[in-house]
Amino acid sequence: MAHSGVVSETTSQPARGRLTQRLQQWLPKLALAPTAAMALVGIYGFMFWTGVLSFTGSTFLPSYEFVGFDQYVRLFGNARWLTACTNLAIFGFLFIFCCLAIGCFLAILLDQRIRNEGVIRTIYLYPLALSMIVTGTVWQWILNPSLGLEKLMHDWGWTSFQFDWLTNPNMVIYTIVIAAVWQASGFVMALFLAGLRGIDPAIINAARVDGASLPRIYLRIVLPSMRPVFFSSVMVLAHIAIKSFDLVMAMTSGGPGYASDLPAMFMYSFTFTRGQMGLGAASSIMMLAMLLAILVPYLYSELRGQRNG
Amino acid sequence: MKPIRHLLAAIGLSFVLSPAHAGQVEVLHWWTSGGEAKAMGVLKEMMEEQGHTWKDFAVAGGGGEAAMTVLKTRAVSGNPPAAAQIKGHDIQEWAKLGFLTNLDDVAKEEKWDQVLPPIVSDIMKYEGHYVAVPVNVHRVNWLWVNPDVFKKVGVEVPHTWDEFFEVADKIKAAGIIPLAHGGQAWQDATVFEAVALAELGPKDYTAAFVNHDMDVLSGPKMVEALTKFHKIRDYIDPNAVGRDWNVATKMVINGDAAMQIMGDWAKGEFTAADKVAGKDYECVPAPGTEGSFTFNIDSLAMFKLNNEANEKAQMDLARTILRPKFQTIFNKAKGSIPVRTDVDMASFDDCAKASMKAFKATAENGGLVPSMAHGMATTSAVQGQIFDVITNFFNTKDADPEATAKQLASAVQSAL
Amino acid sequence: MAQLQLKGIRKTYGNAVQETLKGIDINIESGEFLILVGPSGCGKSTLMNSIAGLETVTEGSILIDGRDVTHAEPKDRDIAMVFQSYALYPTMTVRENIAFGLKIRRMPKEEIDAEVARVAKLLQIEPLLDRKPSQLSGGQQQRVAMGRALARRPKLYLFDEPLSNLDAKLRVEMRTEIKRLHQRLGTTIVYVTHDQIEAMTLADRIAVIKDGELLQLGSPKEIYERPSCRYVASFIGSPAMSFIPLKVERDGGNLRASLRSADDDQMYVPLPEKLAAYEGKEIHLGIRPEHITQPLAHKAGQEATSSGKFRIEVTEPTGPDVMALIRINDTEVHCRLDPDHTVDPGEPAELMIDLSRAIYFEAGKEARIDV
Amino acid sequence: MASHAEKKLTPSRILIYATLLLACVAYLIPVFIMIITSFKTTGDIRSGNLMSFPEVWSVDAWIKAWSSACTGVQCNGVSGFFWNSIKMAVPAVLISTALGAINGYVLAKWRFRGSDIFFSLLLFGCFLPFQVILLPMAATLGKMGLANTTTGLVIVHVVYGVAFTTLFFRNFYVGVPDALIKAARLDGAGFVTIFVRILLPMSVPIIMVCIIWQFTQIWNDFLFGVVFASGDSQPITVGLNNLVNTSTGVKEYNVDMAAAMIAALPTLVVYVLAGKYFIRGLTSGAVKG
Asked: What residue in A sits closest to C75 (Cα-Cα)?
């Protein structure tokens, strides 16, 4: 049907009913009102305020002396911001890609009628329960050359083993990818597993009868039908990537130098510790712009898809 | 229902019992490492002795980054703490925005103008009125030395950078880390500041980091300073990244490393490990900075409150901080020297005595300079830009000192 | 029981350009069983929802027993509905499902119990009362859904394709059961289906809807025998009515048309005089399969019947009949043959065409020519 | 789900099992390290390595972390912070879940002109970097007189959690047949009755998902906790941070790890006990497009 709501939109004809009837009509909107108010103030009001700040020369605390696009010009002349953006691109891509690949792969394996599936699932999922602060602390410890993996290998007799990514400005961003993937890939696995369970077994059986091999069935038939799961995962992961703050803070504090800086860290440090609130606001507006670039096409396809469905 | 009634009764009772003048002081600080926390504990006890309640508001980590964020949000929400650990330029900024309260009455009563050196009291004043209380004076340009290591390797403690590199080579050859370091931006800057002070001298140091003279910032001396600074990379261990300063100090204490360039708060760590100055460890001025004193003054800024009892407590806090008794106990625990020049130094250790001597001497001869790395020299914006350039330079293997000097100048320019 | 009047019902969704309902007028008498049929997307479900009050109409009014309920809430219309998906509340037992509406209406507990018992007995679902819907078979769920509707003794029952989710055998059983219930309780029912056999067997009257328009409203017999337009004619009846193009000619005093078989054998059939206006023009002849048969003795010699030889292309035995496909005037035509009278595909057979029930359409037009 | 038919151990199945087990090890190692470290003594940590078992299993570090480790000036361990977190997380989780359920119900079953746009705009809230809102939120809470109260912190978590809970519930309710709502309306049930009597009893799986998700998010949050809570109402993450950063030279890794484990324990327990409901809930519609 073209229209999937239970109740059609209120038509132009006014209700001639009694008060209770009108109340019934208004109840749904009334029920949304608290959330609407919260979103209006807490999301859009504050966003607007930040937008305003980005056009001011605010330094230490907000001020309202307008300077036009100065802050944006400065932002893009700032080497650290460019590093942060590059890092986000590397981190975001690798993080999303690895999580999807690992999560999907493990989900398919788990879908093969595995014994003790519940236990294994829980093991994959539990890192999500940890806070990024804890994850960061532990991984910092494991990857630290003098305490962790490298020392362990040396102790075990593999003295030529070297793993110094954490202290190497060119490689440090990858250590953050490792920790982040460790934390989030189990969740992606859960999403994919949920998706796999929703697939009609008849389709797989049909493909089997047609003589397709199992890997081929997954590659050609099952995975393409998991598009919604795929999208949900990308959305969740993208938002983790863009918001990544605690993890970097706990693992590297953006170092060595500012080699592992990310936009969220940049924004935080300029707004709150550097006394350059205007610049910080400009950077957060840029972050929102990046988000929009990812989100708008998604929401568009999402909502349009549902209307058709 | 019963427990609630009990609770209400208890609350009511506590109001009745507490002395009428007693208030609450909430103090926001990031003194959470061993010596510091102990020193803060002293203040807490002294306030409680006066019948006030101490509400500890510690925000650890990041050299106060998190604490500043918290302070700003608290101030914006109209609910600042009574006192907060704010220093240097930031005091002026907060005062300018009208957040800070006037301490002139207490100051007059306690004769602060007479007992504080002008260079200290100037920082505490906004438009001639006291708005903050100095707690201590740190000397930043110290080199901490483990004498056992030097004895074992058979070298002398260095007094210039050239000597430093010579000595460091030998120590390194002996399989010991020459310089304990923590790879955090402010620690990088602390070391850089020491090198820069040695190369530039106090006058040009001030020109560069306080007055932001572009010619000095990008000049040949700065290039030389950067070159030496970069060379230090070879004498630290690769695991320095992200290491906290006190962990680095511990390496010196344990003999894993020979030296550390760090402010005298490091002494708190030595003391906490039962080490004695002059015997188990030595403090010498950082190479080439013998006649200079890079100061870092911690202070508590007092915020405007709207509760009389709490205001009273706040004034008592200000008073207590500058009393000689607290100054002595606190600074001995923290490793710094008192801000009052009239405090009896007899019970202090050798390093503190030396520091006080240097403080007084350099105040006379112009060798007393504000620490750039600790927010004494310039605004946090400029400081941040310098940090970015310095730390990136230090962490890049084949960085070009000349280009970096130019970059430094333009980075400072952009934040002005 | 109640009477239902629909007056000029129009419905346009949101900012859609197309109207979903284009002015529907139907009067349903008390105790009448009305069936709405039409292809999917024709608006019959929208009409149903509008009657129930689940959707508002853009224009027109709905009256139940003379009371205007156009803007009344669904619960104030005293209507019950049985859904295609049954829509049983999954977390409630069968008993609770049936009692839910009664509880909401604050009926005393004893009365609710009595009512549930009555309905359960009526539908023979007493053993199921304490089960959850997920523990029931499709047919059982269907009964419970009906039970829920019956429990409130509403003025009007709406059935929205209630049998579509059942397998064929169960569907026939339930069809009979619904018919029996209707006869026994004398309820007013509006019933939506796209199954024309259900429509024919159950309805007192059938409303055929297409593209939001009411094409024809009438008894099953009327709809079957006197369809108002080509669409209704083709929609009702299985296999569908065949439409044969032919040219109206005058031969002497009588109108006639020639029918040509696939083997180019030609025969002439007489046409009614009322088609005189179409002389020399092409018209379409609508004829149902049962009117093309093997020669029948009792019809032989009647004015409207004629015989000819046609090659049988395909045969489909159904048991009681054999459906066969022949070709007349290059058009495929269905006919219904006697299974005892064997014909072989590919072989010619002598067939009798009875035009007494035939209907005629202008070429390329929907409307029927009145003869 | 398909029945667990006993399958023969073919080489390919052995390979599957081996891969799965290898992944298990990879996922478990960090927590394994945390746990064994937390049971080591300080001497043990220095002499042994990352993976070596403690020579003596000691719970001292746990006791110290819970009740006597220093977090700034105070040395009362993280126990106080732990209860603060509970006081904050429980109401925040319940309120945001309840609001999400109502919103999801309206957005799925009572759509009106603009409700889709409302939903999109709300979804965007999921993705807002939270640093952006610190200052304005602080000012707003201050004006409301809720600055530095647990109530204020709860409100912040509700505001920024409701987008996710709404998403979960909406997607779940979209999967509930419309006919059910229609049937209930004909039965005379109104907006509230349908929700309470029909939909809520069916929503157990998604409620589980929401509670688990929200609890994890709120419990693990650091940023809001450090900024919007004052001294004696700070949550456990802030306590952990202060504890880790409060050290006297030697980093007491065993105490740090024990404190980290204490901080992580509630969420870990939730995942281990209720993980299957989480998966089940996801399966029942939370992830559908």
From this structure: A21
Q: Which residues of D touch C141 (CB under 8 A)?
A: none
Predicted pLDDT of residue D65: 84
Using CB atoms, which residue from D103, D222, D282 is nearest to A131?
Answer: D222
Please name every residue paired with B308 in a beta bridge, in sequence order, or none if there are none: none
- Indicate the domain borders of chain C: 4-235, 242-369
- Comparing alpha-carbon positions, the chain D residue that sits nearest to C156 is D186
Domains of chain A: 76-308 (1.10.3720.10)
Contact C75 D190 (CB under 8 A): yes
- What residues of chain C lie within 8 A of the CB of A12, using their CB? 58
Mutate to test the interface with C, among D115, D116, D186 (most CBs of C within 10 A): D186
**How do residues D185-206 score in pLDDT, each as one tens digit?**
888 888 899 999 999 999 988 8
The domain in which residue B245 lies consists of 142-295+372-415
| D108 close to D177: Cβ distance less than 8 angstroms | no
Selecting from A3, A8, A15 the residue whose C-beta is nearest the C-beta of C71 gives A15
- pLDDT of res. D103: 94
Residue C364 corresponds to which tokens in the numbers above? 């390329």
Q: Which residues of A fall within a CB distance of 8 Å from C55?
A: 7-8
Chain C interface, Cβ < 8 Å to D: 14, 49, 52-54, 73-75, 79-81, 83-87, 89-92, 100-101, 104-105, 148, 152, 160
Do A276 and B381 count as a contact with CB atoms less than 8 A apart? yes
Q: Is D70 touching B (CB cutoff 8 A)?
A: yes
Question: Do A43 and D5 count as a contact with CB atoms less than 8 A apart?
Answer: no
The nearest CA of chain D is from the CA of B59 a distance in Å of 7
Q: How far apart are CA D27 and CA C119, in angstroms?
A: 58
* Per-residue pLDDT tens over the stretch A84-116: 999 999 999 999 999 999 999 999 898 888 888
Structural domain including D280 reads 79-286
Does B226 lie in the same domain as B147?
yes
Domain formed by C242-369, architecture: Beta Barrel (2.40)
Q: Does A17 touch chain C if contact means CB atoms closer than 8 Å?
A: yes
CB contact A103 to D (< 8 Å): no
Phi first, then psi: give them for residue C201, nearest 5 degrees.
-75, -35
From the CA of A217, how many Å to the nearest CA of chain B? 48
Q: Is A2 on the interface with C (CB under 8 A)?
A: yes
The CA distance from C196 to D115, in Å, is 39
Instruction: Please write the tens of the pLDDT for every residue from D222-274.
Output: 888 888 887 678 888 888 887 877 655 566 788 888 988 899 899 988 888 88
The segments of chain C whose pLDDT lies below 70 read 1
d(CA B50, CA B23): 10
Q: Which of C277, C280, C274 is nearest to C248 (CA)?
A: C280
The fourth-level CATH superfamily of domain C4-235 is P-loop containing nucleotide triphosphate hydrolases (3.40.50.300)
Q: What are D203's two structure tokens? A: 């929503």
The pLDDT confidence band at residue B16, using thresholds 50, 70 and 90, is: very low
Could you write out the DSSP letters of every residue in chain D? ----PPPP--HHHHHHHHHHHHHHHHHHHHHHHHHHHHTS-HHHHHHS-TTPPPSS---HHHHIIIII--BTTB-STTHHHHHHHHHHHHHHHHHHHHHHHHHHHHHHHS--TTHHHHHHHHHHHHT--GGGGHHHHHHHHHHTT-TTSHHHHHHHHHHHHHHHHHHHHHHHHHTS-HHHHHHHHHTT--HHHIIIIIIHHH-HHHHHHHHHHHHHHHHH--HHHHHH--GGG--HHHHHHHHHH--BSB--HHHHHHHHHHHHHHHHHHHHHHHHHHHHHIIIIIT--
